[in-house]
Amino acid sequence: MIDSFMPMGASETCGIVAVAGHPEAAKMVYLGLYALQHRGQESAGIVSSDGKQIYSHVGDGRVSSVFTQKELESLPGNLAIGHVRYSTTGASAHKNSQPILVKYKGGLMAIAHNGNITNASILKDELESRGAIFQTTTDSELLLHLIAQSSCKNFEETLYSSLIRLKGSYSILLLHGDRLIVMRDPRGFKPLCIGSLDDAHVFASESCALDIMGARLERDVKPGEIIRLENNAIKSERPFAPVEQSFCVFEYIYFCRPDSIVEGKSVHEIRHRLGAQLAEEHPIEADVVIPVPDSSNSAALGFSRQSGIPFDLGLIRSHYVGRTFIQPTQKIRDFGARVKYNTIKSILNNKRVVVVDDSIVRGTTSKQIVTMLRNGGAKEIHFLSSAPPWKFPCYFGIDTPSEQELIANTQTIDKIREYIGSDTLGYTSLQGMLKVMHQDMTYCCACFDGKYPGGKPDIFRKDILEI
């Protein structure tokens, strides 16, 4: 459980969906966005094409509040792309809602992007010096300007010459007239899969978006792959020089839904194995194992089965909590946690409790949870993280605090234990985590080991595109 109700905790990135060759493409994309709502709740949008005209609707908030039946009916065509957003670069503002739709010399073009362009500041300065006027504060808009300013003779050359300028992470859907172009960065940081729905092609950040449509998962978009769809025919190429894959390991630990299949692997099974590894590394005598719901459920179950300690639900999470800006006049201890969680006292009373969480970022939420469990009657609290200590910020698409704000960067494990108030504290080791992961691919673990694929970005500020 990330410190998600804290203003600077690590948070989700974005989710993208595209459907091509379906008579109700926008409605299918809408369903896919529903399934990806966990990847972003700040805004949602869909752009569609009927081959003659482009239609768009974007708005602030969750999918259910942005779209009504009327709005979906206003998005005709057999091609559509969609986006749910959590801001990692650029302000949380309506102008930054995606897909971004623009008109330029080559016609209409819309983009939906998941990731972070780490050389955004350099590119923005260069583009503005040549006359570019940015309409948003997102790094996603950079690709549109690169394409618009290109002097290449055809769109394929224009696209490649623009993509090669981008550094960092991206999974991108580009609607260009009546064509769909799907792109994934050469290191494959962020997930993106391909599915089929009757005669239609579907693309999404996670396979759970395909499931809700009734689509079949075919494969993942390969790192560095560019896929073009014209007249519902697929053309694929991998024009970039090969580099080692750097899939974000935290997608498996936290971001993806447990029912998704990502890079051919079950997210639930990986988290289950992380919990079992945690039990091997931290044998504990206790009465009950509980998760911090919901992202830690699979890991807690794995810990329980490996250790033989019974699994139960000691914390209940409200699924109807958004960001709250109202604090009661009379101060309530741990108000943020109480809005989101409540304890089941009969499970906790006079028990030795193992609490399994997916990570510890600032430690603030962990401290609040421990206090709640104490108040709920727990006799002992053994707090465990299925992820290694998070010591370094992410530059590739996770909104994280600075190094100084990451508690594991500045404090020892014993000091962290003392701060959160648990009887013991343990993390899955970096070696143990990698042992659990499938060995047929390589991962970005920079948030744990500080080894940034391709090197740490020289210039990166979260607000770099603020205007």
Structure, explained:
This protein has two domains: 247 residues, Glutamine Phosphoribosylpyrophosphate, subunit 1, domain 1 (4-Layer Sandwich); 173 residues, Rossmann fold (3-Layer(aba) Sandwich), CATH 3.40.50. Helices cover 28% and strands 24% of the residues. It is built from 17 helices and 23 strands. The chain has a seven-stranded antiparallel β-sheet. It has a six-stranded antiparallel β-sheet with strand order 5-6-7-8-12-13, covered by helices on one side. Strand 12 and strand 13 form a beta hairpin.
Notable characteristics:
single chain; about 475 residues; alpha+beta; Glutamine Phosphoribosylpyrophosphate, subunit 1, domain 1; Rossmann fold; 7-stranded antiparallel β-sheet; 6-stranded antiparallel β-sheet; globular
Short description:
28% of the residues lie in helices and 24% in strands. With 467 residues, it is of the alpha+beta class.
Report the major sheet. Answer: 7 strands, antiparallel
| Poorly predicted runs of 5 or more residues | 1-12, 88-92, 323-327, 461-467
Helix/strand class: alpha+beta
Rg on CA atoms, Å: 22 Å
CATH homologous superfamily title of the largest domain: Aminohydrolase, N-terminal nucleophile (Ntn) domain
Span from first to last CA?
33 Å
DSSP strand count: 23
Overall domain count: 2
- Reading off the top of the CATH hierarchy, the class of the largest domain is best stated as Alpha Beta
Looking at CATH, which topology of the largest domain would you report?
Answer: Glutamine Phosphoribosylpyrophosphate, subunit 1, domain 1
Query: How are the strands of the largest sheet arranged?
Result: 3-2-4-1-10-9-11
Give the overall silhouette: globular
CATH architecture of the largest domain: 4-Layer Sandwich
Helices, by number, come to: 17
Q: What percent of the residues sit in helical stretches (DSSP H or I)?
A: 25-40%
Provide the residue-averaged pLDDT. Answer: 90
Q: What share of residues are in beta strands?
A: 15-25%
